[in-house]
Amino acid sequence: MSHNTFGHLFRVTTWGESHGPAIGCVVDGCPPGIVLQAEEIQAFLDKRRPGQSRFTTQRREPDSVKILSGVFEDDIGQQVTTGTPIALLIDNVDQRGKDYADIKDKFRPGHADFTYLEKYGIRDYRGGGRSSARETAMRVAAGAVARKVIAGVTVRGALIQIGPHKIDRSRWDWAEVERNPFFCPDHGTVQTWAGYLDEVRKAGSSAGAVIEIVAEGVPAGWGSPIYGKLDQDLAGALMSINAVKGVEIGAGFAAAELSGEDNADEIRIGADGGPQFLSNNAGGILGGISTGQPVVARFAVKPTSSILTPRKTIDRSGAETEIATKGRHDPCVGIRGVPVGEAMVAIVLADQFLRHRAQIGAGAGCF
Prior knowledge:
Helix content: 10-25%
Strand order of the largest sheet: 1-2-3-7-4
Distance between the termini: 38 Å
Structural class: alpha+beta
Number of strands: 18
């Protein structure tokens, strides 16, 4: 299987399966001399870790990360990167492959079962194997390393919609994101989502979601026109996340409803003598290059395909049948998609930062 690596100068290669003994990744291209402790990576993994509320899968994985290479203790006792590949490992400790024995010859609607078998002639039916969202834990780990590379940038994410229920953006509070199990920035919507997901879970069904990621502190100039666009890389990175079916930057699809006057982000001179944009419909990116405004991206996550409600399908012999997927699954996989989205944005920004620095050397725009 090819295409397990993402990035150009900051490159992330992941490996492992949902029910294998471990999952891991190799981060290549991280500059030397950056302080990096396993505890810093663990903090982000803990945000994604399963089993933290009744609204996520009850699979009990501590997701404890180990740094196997790429760091060394410096003269003052700090563990710093050496510039060599950083290998990260997470052991799988709560696999229950037997949950999938009844469906090993059936194709789950909405899953990659059919396409994997068509392409490779073999598939790991235990939780989807390589196609499982379990792989995203290593993206979160790699994203923690990426954040160290772009230390001047803050990347934050929030869930803004579950099913038909959207937040009230006038009540947006980043502090609230850390106080509820949904990464919701609107306190008034939390109970609505809780009640809705309880009903969905009891019905043996699932729900989709929309996630918004905001990166602040990105200076103007990152990205390239034509085939190295910052928004192009962001769209590809976010679309690579399991179950993502749509990505937008800035106003996104809503821009189609705006007039040219309303959509244009007008510019004035700010108090610091630099450009001051009066709006941010562009999501902080123009012509594929960052403007210095917050970079804003959203992505839509489809409902979890593994559900208890019986669905029509076929088996490997071509016989028509029905399937109900047992096991431990997220009623809304979008909840744990928030730290994954943050990680992918951080990885893209780290890669674009290094590409920008390589292009202009130590000139303006680097930090």
